[in-house]
Amino acid sequence: MEKEIRAVLDSLPRREASFIEPMECLAASKLPEGSNFVWEVKLDGYRALAVKSGTGVTLFSRRRKSLNRQFPYIVEALADLPAGTVVDGEVVAMDESGRPDFNLLQNFRAEASRIRYYIFDLLCWADRDLTQVPMVERRALLKSVVVIPDKRIRISDYFEAAPKDLLSAVREQRLEGIVGKRKDSVYQPGKRSGAWIKYRVNRGQEFVIGGYFPGPHGFDSLIVGYYEGDKLMYVARTRNGFVPASRRQVFSRLKHLVIPDCPFVNLPETRKSRFGEELNAEKMKKAVWLRPEAVAQIEFLEWTEADRLRHSKFGGLREDKNPRDVVKEQPGAEE
Q1: Which domain, by its residues, includes 262?
Q2: DSSP type of residue 198
Q3: In the listed set 159, 181, 200, which residue is the last one of a domain according to the structure?
Q4: What's the pLDDT tens digit per position in 245-301?
Q5: What counts of helices (H) and strands (E) characterise the chain?
Q6: Bond before 268 cis per omega within 30 degrees
Q7: Do 219 and 190 share a domain, yes or no?
Q8: Does residue 208 lie within any of the structural domains?
Q9: Pairing label, strands 288-299, 313-317
């Protein structure tokens, strides 16, 4: 087997191990038919690429920011990777039941023992470029050559079962959703081509923070939205999900982003809400507007007919997300 693997690697073009922009998933509202996809459980964490070069390991966010200081124990655990390696994966915090918990990840400095790094792709090995190798072959190589005994590092499983069966298990375990990857797909850095798809079963996604209403510990509520082309669309004011410490932490990340004008194109609201919650021109006078550079994970009950969120709740800041990539997503409707 080692000779076969070596022969495969030797046939590939050389590539110095360095940051590769992550391939992205396209949100899907319907599951594809047929057997062209394999499936993974969608992990609710930080996307991260690990690069092992001659100078050591660097753990990169999807925006090429080093995560070494935030997750030094993951970097330490990846030291056994040989030089010339690039892997793609997700940093995840596990709760007491063994489920991913993004809220715990926000407190990673105090919860180091709960952090895991799940590797799901091999992009470079021994300075050989695997990005043009079909996905299932990359995964086979990953399982064959990446052997790290440290329990903080895991190789993510994929399934060829019917996605509806997997969805039943995901719902039962109250997980976020599933990811489908076309078996023959090559790795397309920075692309959202549809060769990889994500299918949510929960009501939650990332939103851009475009402002806030002042209050105790910095703010009372956040004003959030998503991009529709180049337009930032308002969807909710979110005041639930905070404690005083998290308000202070979030406010420290936002206070330098203040701008004079509202960044949302669909404000003020002129249509009255039966609950009196519309963000009209008068209420907007009390708002503080921000450059739309910060991203938050927001959970909610449902979308309204007016394209607003009902009963929204803050889940955490997403430093790994590009605000311009935040668009409206709908969870899957299939049962």
Answers
A1: 204-325
A2: E
A3: 200
A4: 889 999 999 999 999 999 999 999 987 764 457 899 999 999 999 999 999 999 887
A5: 7, 18
A6: yes
A7: no
A8: yes
A9: antiparallel
